[in-house]
Design goal:
Number of strands: 5
Strand content: under 5%
Main location: membrane
Pfam families: DUF1397 (PF07165), DUF92 (PF01940)
Number of domains: 2
Shape: elongated
Number of helices: 23
Subcellular location: Membrane
Radius of gyration: 29 Å
Distance between the termini: 61 Å
Helix content: 55-70%
Keywords: Membrane, Transmembrane, Transmembrane helix
Membrane topology: Multi-pass membrane protein
Length: about 550
């Protein structure tokens, strides 16, 4: 895999040198390549061999391809030209024959990678053939894509992504041909990370380059023979399993409630009017489109978020407003001072804050489940908090509000608290100072911010109830403003629960570069926790606990505030 990165770097350098677009950039890139070669192999022998081979490669190419004739044929060539097919049919076979000209360069690169030369050189040649195939398919469409302005911008994104989504030092230290399940998993995670970043580009040609290089390189390993249960997949499945177990249990409880309601002669008509259906479909769709446009969610997160938003909105518009408040405020919090978070977070996502389907489940899954129970048990509509007259709707309403307050408070604490606090936080379990970004690390500012995050959710719920519930019903109900306070309490409680679980059941370590990592590895110093849960699972469990505890707290203290 390390050889792949070097090879990618050398291809970029060669492209710059051939086009003479930026000589200074070519020199800088060559020096960078030399430094990487020395760092990996302890010598610049491979670099010098590749450099010396360039004139010979040029002579070989001139012998295989009539460059002057090719330039003449390409003069009037354009994306809409009818001569495209004839041009590429004529020269693509010659391009394939010319791959042999690069043998000496491939050997030099192989020496830099530390891989076995006789095994890795054929891999590099296979990559070269793959690049030729990419150039020639669809009558050279790829070539015309590279001439567009967005291509160079996306190429820069790819280069940055390769750096940000790097594989672990342990994987780097193992030869490509000896990769096992752990290394294959590490590489696959890196690939998915790069794919997510490059997917945001408007030039598909860039990702096509990456796919060709990656797939051909990985053919040299035995990863295609290894059955990988990706760690990310395992961790993403865990919230789904928790929901899969909790939903049938909740439905069983609901059946009991319905049976009791029938015995109590509760015959409320709950036919949902068309206007509510229209609003509950239109607003979530607009919210989803906004999230995709602003890169707040990816496609999977948007699809699942749309379903959650529809259920929440049909049940009560107050629930949808809580979701929207959480989405907008947490997305802004994620982008706040993103350049500082990059310094100490290994899995930093570039400040985009894009949520996938797993994050949607973990942050909105519990609230959506309770909203479904609210709809089935209490019917649709906005209701005031009144534990005396409307116990079920009040209990579920506080639970839903608290689930969002927990998620928002924890997000504000982790995204804002880490960059607003000057000193290092302390571990919540033993009060020892730990590096910023450590799971379970808290600070006074972080706790205050988590309370404010919950307060924002409580306030949004209060305002919605205040302006959607009939004024006569509100006059006959208890005062509603305490829900703002309980929102803040839920945010603080959720953040504390999240920190306790994170400090004990989530691994935290610091790698040699000073970044916080969530898995053990070579050179990683353990800080706290055992590797049982990941961040998504911790968020889901915290949300569930907070949503189940807060209704009882609110009922007990509502009239005492």
């Amino acid at each position: 895999m390390s050889g792949f990165l070097l090879f990618l770097a050398f291809v970029v350098v060669a492209s710059i040198a051939v086009t003479h677009a930026a000589p200074q950039s070519a020199v800088e890139a060559l020096l960078k390549y030399k430094d990487e070669c020395i760092a990996m192999s302890g010598s610049d022998v491979g670099y010098r061999q590749a450099l010396v081979a360039i004139p010979e490669v040029r002579a070989c190419l001139l012998n295989r391809i009539d460059v002057f004739e090719m330039k003449g044929d390409a003069v009037s060539l354009s994306e809409s030209s009818e001569r495209r097919k004839d041009f590429f049919d004529k020269y693509c076979p010659k391009f394939n024959e010319s791959v042999d000209c690069f043998d000496d360069i491939f050997e030099g690169i192989a020496k830099c990678t530390g891989e076995e030369t006789e095994k890795i050189v054929p891999v590099f040649k296979d990559v070269a053939y793959g690049v030729v195939d990419l150039i020639c398919e669809n009558d050279g469409q790829f070539v015309f894509e590279t001439q567009k302005p967005e291509f160079m911008a996306c190429l820069g994104t790819l280069r940055e992504s390769v750096t940000e989504c790097k594989i672990s030092n342990v994987t780097k230290s193992i030869s490509l041909i000896y990769y096992g399940e752990e290394q294959c998993r590490d590489v696959e995670n890196s690939r998915e990370c790069i794919k997510q970043k490059v997917d945001t580009c408007s030039s598909p040609a860039v990702y096509n380059i990456f796919e060709v290089l990656f797939n051909r390189i990985m053919k040299a390993s035995n990863c295609h023979q290894v059955t990988i249960m990706n760690e990310g997949t395992v961790y993403k499945i865990l919230p789904v399993l928790l929901c899969a177990l909790s939903i049938p249990l909740s439905m069983f409880c609901w059946i009991g409630n319905v049976a009791y309601s029938k015995l109590a002669s509760n015959n409320q008509d709950n036919v949902i009017p068309p206007t509510r259906w229209l609003f509950s479909l239109l607003m979530p769709i607009l919210l989803m489109m906004y999230g995709l446009k602003r890169k707040g969610v990816n496609k999977s997160g948007a699809a699942l978020g749309l379903i959650c938003a529809i259920v929440l909105s049909i049940s009560s518009h107050a629930f949808l407003v809580c979701l929207a408040t959480f989405f907008f405020s947490s997305s802004r919090a994620t982008r706040f001072r993103a350049h500082l978070k990059r310094k100490f977070e290994e899995d930093f996502q570039g400040g985009e804050g894009r949520r996938n389907w797993a994050q949607v489940i973990c942050n909105a899954g519990m609230a959506t489940q309770l909203a479904l129970l609210y709809l089935l048990d209490c019917g649709y509509g906005e209701r005031p908090i009144d534990f005396g007259q409307l116990y079920r709707s009040s209990w579920l309403g506080i639970g839903i509000m608290s689930a969002f307050a927990c998620s928002n408070g924890d997000t504000w604490a982790s995204e804002l608290g880490t960059v607003l606090t000057k000193g290092d936080p302390f571990l919540i379990t033993n009060r020892k100072r730990v590096p910023r970004g450590t799971n379970g690390g808290v600070s006074f500012i972080g706790l205050v911010v988590s309370f404010l995050g919950g307060l924002a959710i409580g306030f949004s719920y209060y305002v919605t109830v205040r302006y959607t519930v009939d004024s006569k019903i509100l006059r006959d109900s208890p005062r509603q403003w305490p829900i703002i306070v309980f929102g803040g309490v839920a945010g603080l409680l959720g953040s504390v629960v999240d920190s306790i679980i994170g400090a004990t059941l989530q691994y935290s370590g610091v790698d040699p570069s000073g970044k916080i990592v969530e898995r053990p590895g070579k050179g990683v110093k353990h800080i706290c926790g055992v590797r049982i849960l990941d961040n998504h699972s911790v968020n889901l469990i915290s949300s569930i606990i907070t949503a189940l505890l807060m209704p009882s707290v609110a009922m007990h203290f509502w009239n005492k505030i």
